Amino acid sequence: MNKSPYIVVYADAVQSSADAAQTQRRRSADAAQTQRRRDAAQTQRRRSADAAHTQRRRSADAAQTQRRRSAHAAQTQQHFTAFTSVEEVKSMS
Length: 93
Known about the structure:
Layout: H1 5-92
C-alpha cells in the first residue's frame, strides 16, 4: 500500500517543524546558559573590585590612625619635655 504524496509531504512538514522547534529550544537554552555565565563573571569581577576597594580603604584608614597616634605621641613627648624643663628651672631657683 502506497502512501499518498500529500501525507508524505505533510509528515515531512510536521517533522521539519518539530526539528525547528527543537533547534529553537536548544538555542534559547544555550543563550540562557551563556547569559548566566556572563552574569556570574560580572558578579565575580564586581566582588573582586569591591574587595580590593575595601582593602585599600582599610589600609588607608590604618595608615591614618598610625599617623594620628605618632603625632599624638610626639605632642605628648613635647609637653612632657616642656614640663620637665619648667620643673628643672623651678628647682634651680
